[in-house]
Amino acid sequence: MSSRFAPRSTPTRTTVRGGETVVPRGVPRRPSAGRTRTWTPPYPLNLGLTLGPLRRGPADPTFRATPDGSAWRASRTPEGPGTLRVALRAESVEAEAWGPGAAWLLDQLPHLLGESDAPEAFVPRHRLLAVTAHRRPGLRLIRTGLVLESLIPSILEQKVTTDEAYRAWRLLVRKFGEPAPGPVPAQLRMHVMPDPRTWTLIPSWEWHKAGVDDKRASTILRAARVAARMEEAAAMEPLQAQARLELIPGIGPWTSAETIQRSNGAPDAVTVGDLHLPGIIGYALADDRTADDEEMLRLLTPYEGQRHRAARLILLSGRIPTRRKPGMPKFDISKL
Hints:
By secondary structure, the chain is α+β, with helices and mostly antiparallel strands. It has a domain at 148-317: Orthogonal Bundle (Endonuclease III, domain 1). The protein has 15 helices and 10 strands. It has a 6-stranded antiparallel β-sheet. Strand 5 (63-65) and strand 6 form a beta hairpin. Residues 1-41 are annotated as: Disordered. This is DNA-3-methyladenine glycosylase family protein. Keywords: DNA damage, DNA repair.
C-alpha cells in the first residue's frame, strides 16, 4: 500500500481572440492548486459500485461521474467545503482535492473506498448471492464519516418518489449551497450542500417550491439545529448511531439505516419500511413477491451481521420481480 500527498497546480490552456483571453468551456479562469494522493488498495475495487450509493440521481449537484472514469464529490467536511476527484488508474487510486476540506477528504479516502469494510465476513447461503459476490469482487461498503450529507437527502426521500426527492435535493443544494471549490468543469455545475445554519434559515416557501412538505422540512430543521450531535454518530457503533439519529422526531429506522449505511459503512443496517425492498428480497430468496418487513428479516437471518451487504448483492443480481404494487404516488404540495 502506498500513498503520496503533494500540492499541484492545474494548468489552463487559453487562446487569445480579438485581444481577449478565451478560456475553453469547463476550464477555470484562475488555476487552483490542489492536493493530491495516490493510494493502492489491497483489494479489487470497482469505483462505480462502491461510490454509487452517494449519488442522489443523475443530476446530483454534489456528485458527478465523467467519461474518463473519474468520480467528483463535493462535501462539507469538519474542516469546511471540499471537492474530491477520484479515478482508478491500473491498480492505484489517484485522487485530487481542493478547498478547506481537501486534506480531510484525502485523509479519509481509504475509508471512503472501503478499507474499513470486511467482505470476507460475508458467507453466502444462497447460490444467487454466491454467484453475485463472485461476479462483483470490487464492491466495497463506503464509510464517509459524514452524517448530515446522507441524513438530509434520506429525509427528503421519505414517503415520496425518488424523482421528487432527487429534484428537491438538487434545487435546495443549488440555491442555498455554494459552488464546489477548485477547478470543477463548468458543465458539471457542482455545489457543496448548505451548512447547518443555512438549512435552518431556508424560508417555508422555498421548501414548498422544492416540493418538500412541512413534515420533512421540520425534520431537517430539527436535525440541522443539533448538527454537531448528529455528526458524532459517525464515530459510533452502527446500532448506537441509529439510536442517536432516531432521537430526532421524524427520523425512524428507514431513515437512520439509509444514513449510516453511508456514513458508518454499516454492513448489517437493514432498510425496513421500504415500499419495494421486502418484495425484492422475498422474490430473490424465496420466490415470494408478497414478503413484508417481517418476512424479509426472517429471510435475511442467515446473514446476521451482513444483512445490508446481502441486500446490496440481491439488488445487483438482476433478479428483480416485475413490479405489481403501484408506485409511490406523486404529491404536489403546491395544490394544497
